[in-house]
């Protein structure tokens, strides 16, 4: 709490408000006082923008800066000097303030974190389907969810980590049917394949066999009769031409060959227009998969037994991947348990006028006044849709945990879905409706194009993890810095470095930005990477190990004048609590990633330019050791908020 009382930006802000009232007789709001870190090419630590005060004072920005500067130097003990550059008042903070600040935090390993506030939050993330293993897209989801949980926890929330496992539906039945038809009794153990990958291969196999069936059907007379009238419509041909142009352009940009036969109007029709209709109305495999789904819904014992067996294989594989990433959940919800939830709420809302019923018996909600649309919540046959399940699941979670904030980490393809869901919850007057948030993130592409699970063109999470760890191992072997450690110790360090490369590369991108994941770029151990930050921490640990025999750092209190590089580090450390607060409010871990990189960069520069153990005197040495310890603690904590572990050596 000492650090909070020393918040210099709050002191400056309040003092400027008092100065404006005393000098100009005007009351101003705190948000009109703009304070930033002073640019490096000017003298000072914090800058106050004076332009907003010209109208109320009737004076030039430069004159206001001089008057405010004189007031602040006279009234605020920590402000020792100022200078004015146009409309910017640059304030110099005393060395004693920074030294006292460092002494207050250098041993505090949880500096920047708030105590528990009593507020509860929930983060839903990962939420995979049980027909395929976790892949690169899941990794971005998982890393964002885990980091958001850690940041909210550091912000004082009691956080529950959940996922809803999509363990039912036609996609799951496709894997089950393929194993039943083509698996010949194989198991993960008998095949030697990781269990979730094993199940995923049957999903891909189903799609392969379905494509073969579909391609053969396209040559039949019924297919030609369906295609013929579609080809006579000029609008259809125009859409096909636009699709062909876009798809060929994507291939050419990537240097891939273009086969004209793949981009005819007929190809567009069968690939983009008619595929789902064929699956539902003509496909033999589709018919069998749908029949299996109906048996599952009817509770057929044999179907349920197969479903449980294959899901158990997938869960074992998921848990292995989660363990590699250092991720755990407090509660798992399963769609097989939740898919009927929400129907009672819809019926109740219908009675209170929240929803309305159409003549066919379907139930809808009118959201046009919220800039949305009319949305169905119950089909005419009384069955629910996804939004209905989500209504019921949110209510269940509130009953389970009493959380007032629910953060859904889901790709931006579902933006509209969550806008609708949140608006419905407000109209149902749910007590947590104002705390619902969709952490929307951009999809992850490969350099060769969009990933497609059904075609097997994804980067599996396990393969990617193995690749970055191997890259870390290759780099370490070139430098030969760990040769004195056991193989087990070396492997543990390689895992920390490889996972840091992977995690940081993804988290440093703003969640809303769509990103292309280039494995080669992600494992670059130089520049704005996780290993670069880890290296700063390793340097600090090395210095501290060498200094352990020195004992007390009491002489640091006598240090009188900080170097510019030291003050830069101190100012960066001072900003840490505010960065955590901002990242928590915006649900954006990239703030923490950028902060850690900048702090590491400042320390690398300081380490290069200034001797720590060989400082000119004992006071400077002890002060720099304190500064290094504080920097190490903040780097460790900041990277922990991203789910990244720090090695002592690398």
Description:
The chain has 650 residues and is of the alpha/beta class. Among the domains are: 2-93, Gyrase A, domain 2; 171-298, no CATH class; 461-640, Isoleucyl-tRNA Synthetase, Domain 1 (Orthogonal Bundle). It is built from 27 helices and 15 strands. α9 (195-217) crosses α15 and α13 packs across α14 (284-297). The longest helix has 25 residues, at 301-325. The protein starts with a helix and ends in a 10-residue tail after the last helix.
Number of strands: 15
* The top level CATH class name of the domain at 461-640: Mainly Alpha
Radius of gyration: 30 Å
Which residues form runs of ≥5 with pLDDT under 50? Answer: 1-5, 450-456
Helical residues, percent:
55-70%
Global outline: globular
At CATH's second level, what is the architecture of the domain at 461-640?
Orthogonal Bundle
Q: How is the biggest beta sheet arranged?
A: 5 strands, parallel
Task: Give me the CATH fold name of the domain at 461-640.
Answer: Isoleucyl-tRNA Synthetase, Domain 1
Short description:
By secondary structure, the protein is an alpha/beta fold. It contains 27 helices and 15 strands. Strand 11, helix 19 and strand 12 form a beta-alpha-beta unit.
Features:
single chain; 650 residues; alpha/beta; Gyrase A, domain 2; Isoleucyl-tRNA Synthetase, Domain 1; four-stranded antiparallel sheet; 15 strands
């Amino acid at each position: 709490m000492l650090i909070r009382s020393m918040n210099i930006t709050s002191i400056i802000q309040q003092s400027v408000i008092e100065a404006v009232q005393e000098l100009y007789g005007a009351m101003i709001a705190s948000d009109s006082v703009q304070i930033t870190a002073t640019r490096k090419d000017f003298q000072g630590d914090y800058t106050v923008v004076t332009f907003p005060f010209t109208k109320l004072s009737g004076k030039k920005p430069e004159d206001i800066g001089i008057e405010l500067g004189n007031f602040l130097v006279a009234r605020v003990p920590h402000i020792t000097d100022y200078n004015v550059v146009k409309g910017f008042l640059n304030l110099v903070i005393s060395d004693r303030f920074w030294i006292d600040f460092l002494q207050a935090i250098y041993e505090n390993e949880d500096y920047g974190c708030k105590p528990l506030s009593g507020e509860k939050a929930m983060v839903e993330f990962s939420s995979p389907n049980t027909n395929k293993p976790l892949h690169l897209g899941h990794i971005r989801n998982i890393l964002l969810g885990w980091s958001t949980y850690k940041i909210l926890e550091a912000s004082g929330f009691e956080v529950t980590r959940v996922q809803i496992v999509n363990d039912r539906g036609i996609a799951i039945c496709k894997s089950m049917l393929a194993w039943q038809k083509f698996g010949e009794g194989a198991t993960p153990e008998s095949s030697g394949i990781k269990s979730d990958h094993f199940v995923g291969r049957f999903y891909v196999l189903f799609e392969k066999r379905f494509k073969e069936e579909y391609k053969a059907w396209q040559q039949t007379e019924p297919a030609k009769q369906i295609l013929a009238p579609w080809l006579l419509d000029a609008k259809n041909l125009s859409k096909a031409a636009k699709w062909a142009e876009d798809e060929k352009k994507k291939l050419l940009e990537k240097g891939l060959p273009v086969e004209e036969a793949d981009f005819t109007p007929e190809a567009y029709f069968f690939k983009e227009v008619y595929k789902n209709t064929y699956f539902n109305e003509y496909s033999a495999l589709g018919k069998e998969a749908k029949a299996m789904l109906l048996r599952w819904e009817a509770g057929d014992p044999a179907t349920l037994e197969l479903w449980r067996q294959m899901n158990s294989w997938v869960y074992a594989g998921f848990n292995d991947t989660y363990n590699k990433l250092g991720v755990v959940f407090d509660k798992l919800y399963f769609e097989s348990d939740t898919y009927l939830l929400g129907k009672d709420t819809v019926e109740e809302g219908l009675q209170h006028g929240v929803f309305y019923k159409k003549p066919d018996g379907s139930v809808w909600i009118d959201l046009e006044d919220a800039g949305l649309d009319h949305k169905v919540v119950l089909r005419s046959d009384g069955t629910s849709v996804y939004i209905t399940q989500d209504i019921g699941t949110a209510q269940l979670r509130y009953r389970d945990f009493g959380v007032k904030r629910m953060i859904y980490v889901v790709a931006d393809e579902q933006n509209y879905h969550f806008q609708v869901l949140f608006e419905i919850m407000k109209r149902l007057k749910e007590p947590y409706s104002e705390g619902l948030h969709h952490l929307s993130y951009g999809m992850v592409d490969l350099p060769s194009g969009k990933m497609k699970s059904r075609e097997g063109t994804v980067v599996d999470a396990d393969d990617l993890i193995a690749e970055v760890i191997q890259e870390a191992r290759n780099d370490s072997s070139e430098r030969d810095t760990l040769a004195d450690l056991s193989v087990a110790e070396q492997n543990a360090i390689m895992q920390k470095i490889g996972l840091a490369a992977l995690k940081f590369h993804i988290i440093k991108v703003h969640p809303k930005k769509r990103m292309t994941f280039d494995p080669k770029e992600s494992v670059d151990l130089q520049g704005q990477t996780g290993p670069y930050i880890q290296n700063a921490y390793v340097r600090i640990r090395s210095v501290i190990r060498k200094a352990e025999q020195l004992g007390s750092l009491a002489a640091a209190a006598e240090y009188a004048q900080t170097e510019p590089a030291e003050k830069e580090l101190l100012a960066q450390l001072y900003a840490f609590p505010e960065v955590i607060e901002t990242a928590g409010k915006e649900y954006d871990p990239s703030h923490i990633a950028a902060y850690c990189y900048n702090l590491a960069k400042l320390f690398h520069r300081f380490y290069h330019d200034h001797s720590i153990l060989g400082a000119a005197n004992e006071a400077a040495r002890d002060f720099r050791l304190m500064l290094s310890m504080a920097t190490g603690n903040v780097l460790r904590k900041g990277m922990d908020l991203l789910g990244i572990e720090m090695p002592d050596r690398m």
